[in-house]
Amino acid sequence: DVKVTQSSRYLVKRTGEKVFLECVQDMDHENMFWYRQDPGLGLRLIYFSYDVKMKEKGDIPEGYSVSREKKERFSLILESASTNQTSMYLCASSGYTEAFFGQGTRLTVV
Amino acid sequence: AQSVTQLGSHVSVSEGALVLLRCNYSSSVPPYLFWYVQYPNQGLQLLLKYTSAATLVKGINGFEAEFKKSETSFHLTKPSAHMSDAAEYFCAVRMIKAAGNKLTFGGGTRVLVKP
Fold first, then answer.
1. d(CA B68, CA B62)
2. Within its chain, how far is the Cα of A67 from the centroid?
3. A97 → closest Cβ in B32, B105, B107
């Protein structure tokens, strides 16, 4: 069974902290994505990566960075967390057609 | 850039009634199209996909969708709703040669099933 695993289901962080969200996939996919999900806004793409060490900005990259040192792992970094980054974060990976999603990380910044 | 519009952020249906969720996309070239379902506090699960083969696509849990190029639509239907269908549904589009195969999502439709 294919799997995308996010390291945490729930996180609570303080304003100004550096936050790391980790995602691992076991499907040998080239492409990986980070989305954030907010009520009424659907899923918005933050960053994606189509190869190791390659990354591209999505629709809402401000305040975020990413790292992809190995093919199976894609990390989302909040350099200095702010309350407006409180959200559900979803990682996905894809091969040629559909994307597979992790369970999500619900991040609360206080 | 492509966009996806889901008509209705909330839909309420009675158990046993037809479920119809609407999705329209904007693209000059037919893309790949997907429907995903999300149950509370979970990630997204693929229901079905259109990848330029048959225009009527059957998915899991009794759902199906029809691609209509002339209407730029990909509406999702299920003949008879079940209580377990209560969830949020997302339509998504990917251009066939999109960089990184990235998906663009609609705003989602939350389905409530009444007994």
1. 20
2. 10
3. B32
